[in-house]
Specification:
The structure holds two protein chains of two kinds. Chain A has one domain: Helix Hairpins, CATH 1.10.287.3510. Helix content of chain A is 74%, strand content 0%. Chain A is built from five helices and no strands. Chain A is elongated. Chain B has 20 helices and two strands. In chain B, strands 1-2 form a two-stranded antiparallel sheet. The longest helix of chain B has 34 residues. Chain B starts with a helix and ends with a helix. Classes of the chains: A mainly alpha, B mainly alpha. At the A-B interface, helix 2, helix 3 and helix 4 of A face helix 5 and helix 6 of B.
């Protein structure tokens, strides 16, 4: 029974794991770049969750052909394609901001930054 | 053309945003003119849409001709057009302010128009996933605008805003995933029906509600999820802080109301009392904590930022009470707060330019030196406290009445207490302005790059904001009628 739950639901466990690791990295890491990486891991967890939602056992790819079907739901895939694009733009903006912070303060460490900030 | 009004509200600013980067290949400083033309047309479209909703009722638009629930739907009802007109009016005001105050780079105006597009999209969308996309467009443009200040402090503030804002939007997206798993649809009207069929006590539905509301409260900046806000408001250029303080959280609060009433509906709040009480609780804590933190600030702009945390608590409390009276109050306060807070940030920018004063201590004795700006500050501050006949009073009064009628006593108590605290932090500044000895000598005006540091346009904008803060009270019956078009149907069914 337990083994069954693990073997059939491993995608969901992976999602939870990714969300946890991502959020932990964002909160705990002092390095700004690592924070952005954590943000990406967090979002990847969500992407995996959506893609898993679309899956059905024995489903074929959503391309209409004779004798095919039942199909996998195409909607979450499309949504996640959009969400990935959003995620990439966010990462780009975040990295651009980090470049500017580094060239100004010469550090990527949040603690050092905090100290410089209050002088 | 008239049929496509709704979609043009979003498409026009996006197209406009593409022009300044192209133009900067040949010309510098044409960004403002392009933004001005686009914004004027955008405001006109918003007015037209409001008129057509006022006369003919709800407007529904199927994007690309694909009918809902499979296609993407844009919907404009009474509450929507109120926000759309607010977006049009505030962006015009901010542009008039930015003409002189800058930033003057073309790229700035590109981002400005993208923010207008994102905000308009959030208001008119009838689809929860599209709401996520526009939430992120708004977020991306806002992060860029916050970072457009000269100093590196603004970059740090923007990065902080980005990290917290992205977590918020991602939680919202996760909530949408749960709603999709429960119902298989993303259209708001369709969701409200299917969620009821699935059953409000289903774990999927409850999780979806929790995640969506948590995600949006980050964007609204309720306590304790407000940490991005003070830095973002205080460290960005004056035009930007006026713009985002007036609109970004406001439209997020609107999105929260939309999700509450159009997706989960009042029936859900009735069926799951813990959801309503959790929302009321968060709102009440936010009202008190925001006010207390505002009292503790020495920097005027940070004080205003914390004041927003408290005022949005009020708005959300009004929406959570969810009786028609309280919802009218919350909507009036939402719109009124946008005008008042935007005006306050603009006027602190003017005072800083004229005298160099940024702290409560520095404001001492400035009443005589910058009479107009100080007068506007006082009027807006009193309106924010809720002195009749200002719009701040009209909103709070109706929220209190609604809460009394519904028997939600914590909201009544907290609201009255917070009014006193609001008076405390604004009275402190007012007292300094008029009755204290100056701490900044008259000669030390900040260095300006030649010419006037404050233009007539900037003064005009804040004076108009002050006049509106008092005059908008007259529009309350019209707001009631607008909400009558759809929102009350959803509440009282």
């Amino acid at each position: 029974m337990t083994l069954d739950l693990i073997t059939t639901h491993y995608n969901y466990y992976a999602t939870v794991l990714l969300l946890g690791i991502g959020l932990y990295t964002v909160i705990e890491s002092r390095n700004l770049v690592k924070k952005v990486i954590g943000l990406n891991i967090f979002q990847t967890g969500i992407f995996l969750f959506f893609v898993t939602l679309a899956f059905r056992t024995g489903g074929s790819p959503p391309v209409i052909s004779e004798g095919a079907g039942p199909y996998v739901s195409p909607l979450p895939h499309v949504l996640i394609l959009t969400a990935i694009v959003v995620g990439v733009s966010l990462t780009a903006v975040a990295l651009a901001l980090i470049v500017r912070i580094y060239s100004e303060y010469g550090t990527l460490n949040e603690d050092n930054l905090e100290r410089l900030y209050h002088d | 053309m008239i049929d496509h009004l709704v979609v043009l509200l979003v498409v026009l600013p996006i197209l406009g945003a593409a022009v300044p980067p192209l133009a900067s290949l040949r010309y510098d400083r044409v960004g403002w003119a392009i933004a001005a033309v686009t914004t004027v047309v955008h405001a006109a479209l918003a007015g037209l849409l409001a008129w057509s909703v006022w006369t003919d009722g709800v407007v529904r638009y199927a994007v690309g001709g694909f009918a809902a629930p499979y296609g993407i739907e844009l919907v404009a009802d009474g509450l929507t057009v109120l926000l759309v007109v607010l977006i049009g009016a505030v962006s015009l005001g901010v542009l008039a302010y930015a003409r002189h105050a800058g930033p003057h780079r073309n790229s700035f105006y590109s981002q400005f128009l993208l923010l207008v597009a994102g905000l308009s999209g959030m208001t008119v969308t009838g689809d929860v996933f599209n709401l996520y996309v526009f939430l992120e467009i708004t977020g991306l443009a806002a992060y860029g605008l916050v970072a457009s200040g000269r100093g590196a402090r603004s970059a740090v503030a923007a990065l902080k805003y980005l990290v917290v804002g992205t977590i918020g939007a991602s939680l919202y997206l996760l909530g949408v995933g749960y709603a999709l798993a429960a119902t298989g649809t993303l259209n708001m009207a369709d969701l409200s029906r299917k969620l009821a069929e699935v059953g409000y006590d289903s774990t999927l539905v409850l999780t979806a509600f929790g995640l969506i509301v948590a995600g949006l409260t980050v964007k609204v900046a309720l306590f304790p999820l407000h940490t991005w806000q003070p830095d973002a408001y205080a460290d960005s250029p004056d035009s930007v802080s006026a713009f985002i303080s007036a609109l970004v959280s406001t439209v997020s609060a609107y999105a929260l109301a939309r999700v509450l009433f159009s997706v989960f509906t009042v029936d859900f709040l009735e069926a799951v009392p813990v959801a309503r009480w959790a929302l009321v609780g968060v709102a009440c804590v936010s009202i008190v904590a925001g006010s207390v933190l505002a009292v503790a600030q020495s920097d005027v702009q940070r004080m205003l930022a914390y004041s927003s945390v408290s005022q949005f608590g009020l708005v959300i409390a009004g929406f959570a009470v969810a009786t028609p009276l309280a919802v009218v109050g919350a909507t009036v306060h939402l719109v009124g707060h946008a005008v008042m807070k935007g005006g306050l940030f603009a006027v602190t920018g003017i005072i800083e330019r004229e005298t160099g004063a940024t702290t409560v201590r520095g404001y001492a004795g400035m009443g005589g030196r910058v009479p107009v700006a100080a007068g506007v500050f006082t009027v807006l501050a009193l309106a924010m406290v809720g002195v009749p006949p200002a719009v701040g009073f009209a909103g709070k009064w109706q929220i209190v009445l609604g809460a009394v009628n519904a028997g939600v006593w914590p909201v009544v108590v907290v609201l009255l207490a917070s009014t006193l605290l609001t008076l405390a932090y604004f009275a402190r500044v007012g007292e300094r302005l008029y009755f204290a000895e100056p701490t900044i000598a008259a000669e030390t005006t900040p260095a300006t790059d030649g010419g006037e540091s404050v233009s007539t346009g900037m003064i005009a904008v804040v004076v108009v904001a002050a006049v509106l803060a008092v005059g908008l009270t007259a529009a309350v019956p019209a707001v009631e009628q607008l909400l009558d078009i759809t929102v009350f149907e959803l509440i009282t069914q």
